């Protein structure tokens, strides 16, 4: 609400005394001036949100890469364990026969 004069005049047309209409218009302007988002506020928030989402996308891509690397390491370690178990099994089998 930036047009306090028009607001005051509208109150006066409705029968509110001039002093009260002006005081109410000023009070309403002071109250709402900090509580209402402007187009600039919304634009700034939109840009900040886009930036935040870009950061999250980047972090998500990094995490996916790290998970894929861990998965490969796990597969290699499991393969090594399987080979070791197969060798151990063969060694035990040879000892028993």
3D structure, described in words:
This protein has helices at residues 4-13, 18-33, 39-96. The N and C termini lie far apart (95 Å). The mean pLDDT is 91. The protein is mainly alpha-helical and 97 residues long.
Architecture blueprint of SSEs:
Blueprint: H1 4-13, H2 18-33, H3 39-96
- Strand content is under 5%
Helices and strands: which structural class?
Answer: mainly alpha
Mean pLDDT: 91
What percent of residues adopt helix (DSSP H or I)? over 70%
Morphology call: rod-shaped
Rg (CA only) = 36 Å
**Discrete helix count:** 3
Order of helices and strands: HHH
Poorly predicted runs of 5 or more residues: none
Count all strands and give the number.
0
End-to-end separation in angstroms reads: 95 Å
- Largest pleated sheet: none
Summarize the structure.
The chain has 97 residues and is mainly alpha-helical. It has helices at 4-13, 18-33, 39-96.
Features:
97 residues; mainly alpha; 3 helices; rod-shaped
